[in-house]
Amino acid sequence: MKLDRFDRQLLNLVQEDAGQTAERLAEQVALSPSAIQRRLRKLREHGVIQRDAAVLDPRQVGKPTFFIVALQVERERPELLAQLRKWLAAQAQVQQVFYVTGEADFVLVVTAPDTENYDALMLRMIADNLNIKRFTTHVALSLVKRGLTIPVALDEND
Fold it and tell me: What is the pLDDT, as a whole number, of residue 156?
């Protein structure tokens, strides 16, 4: 899908607050509310907008602990990597998974109510995925910034 300047403006705005009405968005983008709705529908249909989500304040929902995990696999055979990816994607506690270069093969962002729950998840991961060589864990002491916003240049050449 070819994105124009209006689409790019909308993408930046809805990433900051997807709950804005078409009328509110129209105040910020030089389009009518109906044109805004059509464009957002088209962006969703083409998979540019994959989903809308609410960002919660962790302190108000039980203060979960965040864990950053560097994961190494024994062998990088495609079928074994596919199995691990599928397993990780199915775990609600695993918020993000990155396949990376360097010493680790994957970097994960995991949330759990406490270290006992995290440990249970990791034990299941090792039991279900025999190709895991090792993992190291960093416990987040505080949350400085959290988000999924991707800055979208208003001009495709930027």
Answer: 75
